[in-house]
Amino acid sequence: MHGCDNFCSYCVVPYVRGPQISRPPNLIIDQVKRLAENGIKQITLLGQRVNAYKYTNGDKTYCLADLLEMASAVNGIEWIKFVTSYPAEEYFDEICKAMANLPKVCHYLHMPAQSGSDKILKAMNRHYTAAQYLDLLAVRELLCPT
Ligand code: SF4
Predict the structure, then answer these.
(1) Which residue of 54, 65, 126, 135 shows the fewest CB atoms closer than 10 Å?
(2) Among the atoms of ligand 1, which is closest to the Cα of residue 126?
(3) Which superfamily does CATH assign the domain made up of 13-143 to?
(4) Ligand 1 center to residue 12 CA distance, Å?
């Protein structure tokens, strides 16, 4: 993915990288296959808000969970990670289920809290509260216990 639309008050990314763009899944998986053919065993799917990945092609909309499944099917790849996750995205449950069910997806979740204070989170223009962040982690623990 490239860019970000969130405009957290302290962050330069939306100004220097532009709007959020999800690359087509076939291009990403072709890249994963090329890496595997060259002996690479671990890949990391990257985005400023990688869990917001969404790409529509015809009737199908792909989310990060779909990418994790597609990358898992690539021979030679043994470990898959993704960074960075934003604590308020719509496909969180699907991503946690993929993490639980796909053996190649590492049980590693990087999801910056930024602050435990709702007042500070609001000043940062983060779109969640401290309680919502903790609720998300509770869901993750249920779906994908460590
Ligand atoms: S979500 Fe991340 S990249 Fe986007 S503006 Fe906020 S801190 Fe920056």
Answers:
(1) 135
(2) 6
(3) tm_1862 like domain (3.80.30.20)
(4) 8
Q: For 71-82, give the secondary structure using H, E and C.
A: HHCCCCCCEEEE
Instruction: Evaluate if residue 143 carries a pLDDT over 70.
Output: no
pLDDT score recorded for residue 142: 66
User: Look-up: residue for tokens 């890949």?
Assistant: 43
Q: Which two tokens stand for residue 83?
A: 């960074």
Intra-chain end-to-end CA distance of the chain, in Å = 28
Residue nearest to atom 6 of ligand 1 (CA): 8
What is the pTM for the complete model shown?
Answer: 0.92
Q: Going by C-beta distance under 8 Å and a sequence separation of 6 or more, which residues neighbour residue 92?
A: 51, 136, 139, 140
Between the alpha carbon of residue 50 and those of residues 28, 38, 67, 75, 76, the distances in Å are 13, 25, 11, 23, 23
Q: Locate the ligand 1 atom nearest the alpha carbon of residue 7 and give its number.
A: 5
